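Write out the 3D structure for:
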Amino acid sequence: MAAKDSISRDCWYAISMRYRQERTGAAFLESVGVTTFLPMLTEMHQWSDRQKSVMVPLFPSYMFVQVPPTVASFARVLQTPGVLNFVGSRNIPIPIPEKEIADIRCVLSHKVECSPCSFLKLGQQVRIVGGALNQVEGTLIGRGPDSKLVVSIELIQRSLAITLYDFDVEPIFDTPVSKRPNVSATTHHA
């Protein structure tokens, strides 16, 4: 019975969207009962006569859906106006780890200063220790006042950067927690 439950369990998937069709696609999918996640940021846009705050997708041309890993679920999403395809390998959608979605949600819900940045494969993997972003993991870039934590969605190769003011971070090792050395790094805004 447990095996059947794990097979039918909903998973997060990234879908590629037509340019500027993310909101329309998300609204349509939500209206037919599909759980979506369209991370948004507020940006200030300047026109010749005014300045206005505008909500824009964090990862333009991408959004996330949570559906069972079935052909019928995939087909239902692909029939949505504006949806181009699932992100995957050889036309097979690849699920996104729940932790990656949870980390992006955590950052956005706490209104931490962040911005999209280039996807980084190399660099020290760290975890925030304590505070509102406790356990958020990512790649540490920069030193001193320029320290940032890059949180990524591997599958679509998109990231966001969090400015680390007085957050404590610790390195992430591949060894079990019980065998990790007691090492931590602290970043401070100078």
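The first strand starts at residue 11 and ends at 17.
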